[in-house]
Every structure is written in C-alpha cells, then in structure tokens.
Write a structure and sequence with these properties.
The protein contains 7 helices and 5 strands. By secondary structure, the chain is of the alpha/beta class. Strands 1-5-3-4-2 form a 5-stranded mixed sheet. A hairpin with a 2-residue loop joins strand 3 and strand 4. Helix 5 packs across helix 6. The relative contact order is 0.18.
Length: 168
C-alpha cells in the first residue's frame, strides 16, 4: 500500500514565538468551513510552564514560510497556548517546513489534530481523576515538579468536579 503522506523537509530551530504571525490560510479556511470552535485552555496559573516547554521539545510547532511570513501549519494547539501564555519574544521550538506546500495534507492533519486526537485519546472524568495520582508518581520518579501545582489546579484544567477528584 502506497503512503499517502507527502514528503516534506523540516528543520527544528528555536525562534521567537512572535515570528509565527498567524495560522496558515489553508487552516483558517478549514476552521471556517467546519466551524471549529476554539478549544478550551487551562488557566496559565494551573500549569507549570517548564513542563509545557519540555513537551514542546518533543512536539514542536510546525511553521511554513510564505510571502516572507511564518505561518503555523501544525501543532496548532501548542501554538495557540503559547500565544496565550508566553511573550512574543520568547523562544520556542519550531519545525520549519520547506518545499512545496501541500494544502490538503496540512488541512487534513489539522482536522486530525483538532478532532480525532481528542476523540481517540479522550478521557472520561473517572480516567482523568485516576490519572492525577499517576501524574504525581511519574513526576516524582522523574524528579520533576508535578505538571499541576495542586489537585484543585489539575481538576480545573481537566474539567473534573471536586467530588469526583475526591473519590479518584
């Protein structure tokens, strides 16, 4: 079976967040066509930003340069969170995509990232509550601060009620 994924070249660099000026036009059109609502964002105070930065090293923002502008084409969620939480001059890992832009490929990936990843990996409230204990243990084993500074912050970010968190 032939791969339907087009080849593209990319290079990861640290760039100021503000250099990625906007969502690529193709993805803006997909957002309008499918009437995608904005995704909820956890409160910045409920997250240890150092962990977000570590996660971004594994899953950098993808950007494509056209008409002398960098536009976000992948990992849109992180790009939106960074724009909400970080100053434009802060450096973030960016995968610069080069070569001919394949609009249908990037639009498809955007829809997969926005919808299917959330459906496939979605958690119900009981799963989310039980993961809190795992996240604390994992952070301790890795000698890291927990991603969330408190159980209440975790519950707010994951949208899990206090009662369910107490039982979890």
């Amino acid at each position: 079976m032939a791969s339907t994924t087009p080849q593209f070249h990319s290079q990861t660099q640290l760039l100021p967040l503000g250099e990625i000026s906007e969502l690529h036009e193709t993805l803006q059109n997909a957002r309008k066509k499918y009437q995608l609502p904005p995704l909820a964002q956890p409160n910045q105070a409920d997250i240890h930003l150092a962990h977000v930065r570590t996660l971004m090293e594994v899953f950098p923002i993808f950007a494509h340069r056209s008409r002398n502008k960098l536009r976000c084409v992948g990992n849109v969620r992180f790009w939106e969170l960074c724009r909400a939480w970080l100053d434009p001059d802060q450096m973030v890992p960016v995968n610069l995509v080069s070569g001919r832009f394949k609009a249908d490929f990037w639009a498809r990936n955007y829809l997969l990232e926005t919808y299917y990843a959330n459906v496939l990996f979605g958690l119900n409230a009981d799963d989310g509550a039980s993961l809190y204990h795992l996240s604390k243990e994992w952070a301790s084993d890795m000698e890291l601060h927990p991603i969330f500074p408190s159980k209440a912050a975790y519950g707010r970010a994951m949208r899990i009620g206090k009662g369910r968190m107490a039982r979890g």
